[in-house]
Amino acid sequence: MLFNDLKPSECTDELVIRAITRFKNRKHPIEIPRNKAVGIHGFSHEYINYMLGGTFRSSYTPLNDNIINGRIRGVAGVVGCTNPRVKQDWVHVELVKELIKNDVLVVQTGCSQISLANAGLLTPEASHLAGPGLAEVCETVGMPPVLGLGSCVDNSRILIACAEMVKTGGLGESIADLPVAGAAPEYMSEKAISIGHYFVASGVYTIFGVTFPTVKNTKFHKLLFEDFEEKYGLGRWDFALDPYDMAKKMIAHIDKKRKALGIDKTRERVMMDFADRQAIEG
Ligand code: SF4
What domains lie within the chain, and their CATH numbers? Predict the structure, then answer.
């Protein structure tokens, strides 16, 4: 009966009935979290334009200006799945907290938006977790330090925003010049790999976690992890398991791009240590 493609409704009904019938067989206690959280979602490329520039003068200029003057160190897309092979929500939440503490504005798509909303990161009040430069911009505009742009198929919105940053000027000639980075720290589907490659081919440094489906020390691995950037001027792939390592790598890439653009002098290139972070959270 199951998976009869001519009777889809009956199949799904039977699946649900079987699950309900077997629920009583579960031996371990079931923990359903009781916390409720609010998130502000649905920032499109157009809305970011209006939010930053106003209804009559919609513009990315305030974003570019604040990147050039160093209040915002760069922009990170942290996107994608949550993966049952790692501790629930932990990698996404820690990575994003680490990035915003270091003045990196985060844009987000995909299922992990729920994780970030649960951690209270999708409200303007979360700006108290951001570094001083990013917090100042968020408080001025009234925006969260993490902007939810939609589902994982809305990643094109992130690239539209990147293209708009290039067009606005002052941050290089192509997406590959921008101080931006992408991550799918808990990806678990082939679709995520293809979306990641769309970003790499568009010029974005992109880092994945959990596992990576290539073999180290092969020509193909080198092509993805080195040659794309060094020989062809595109983005490149990278990999890390730990959210703090991942944040370090992304920030190092953002700083490399700031240096290439000649805007590295506008901010001190230091990673915040544990004491700095405690001071912000305290
Ligand atoms: S690929 Fe699937 S699981 Fe991953 S973010 Fe998209 S919809 Fe969610």
Answer: 45-281 (3.40.50.2030)
